[in-house]
């Protein structure tokens, strides 16, 4: 993790320190936080409870083996969407169970069939939601691993309660079914809170290159003596860029893997692709497209040319030149172009 500014200048009310060796070799910015209450305090305790690792790590390893095949990894990571699959699927289950709870509370007898149908939709949707969530969780470490494990337990409990609710409804005991469904929604709310914490506080699933821009104009980054097959990491307008010569041509991608920030310049190269050394996300050198998850968003790519014995790079221009999956202007806007 690279700090582009003095952390204390970002928020002088907090104390910052950089700790190395967190997760898969990245640096972590640890803050001395202000007062925390309720679920914030509980979540922080979960993050710090290392005893969870004894159970969570073996299961993470098992899940990692299950999702290793490329088709499975790409599907559960949301490569076909261009962003993680899990968040969208959660809306199906939460929405269906939430509406079922509303109908149970105020819908009366006429709404019972609809409530039961929504309950079934939620249960069916919970399966792919859980699978995609486990896929994402299998790449986490430390605090994210622990919170993710409790998040999974809460959601599994909520699923069990909703299944039990359906069983009681089928037996004609709707009162017990409603109670079980209500309890399931309560547990689901806890799981949803932890999921939000993982995404918006810990940044799990966030594209690490989202705020990188790169040079809008041609910028020289190194001499044109780049050896075929030897990756070089350069800096262009504050953006780390991987430059690699393949079959006589120089290619340039953002050097930080969008999945979790792995150093692509330390990865492996084969068949016109680079594979991240941390979680094996694989990108095409030609356009940054993902050929293997867990990364789901294309890696930002840059145009290259040689002028006066120097290799120059720039952000692709919309509407011309090489194919540009991501065109980022200096204002940070993103456009699609071909």
Task: Walk me through the structure.
By secondary structure, the chain is of the alpha+beta class. The chain has eight helices and 14 strands. The chain folds into three domains: 1-34, no CATH class; 37-200; 219-337, Rieske [2Fe-2S] iron-sulphur domain (Rieske Iron-sulfur Protein). The strands form four sheets. It has a six-stranded antiparallel β-sheet, with no helix packed on it. Strands 7-8-9-10 form a four-stranded antiparallel β-sheet. Helix 5 (86-106) packs antiparallel against helix 8 (174-200), helix 6 (112-137) packs antiparallel against helix 7 and helix 7 (142-170) packs antiparallel against helix 8 (174-200). The chain starts with 6 loop residues before the first helix and ends with a strand. The model is unreliable at 1-32 and 321-338 (pLDDT under 50).
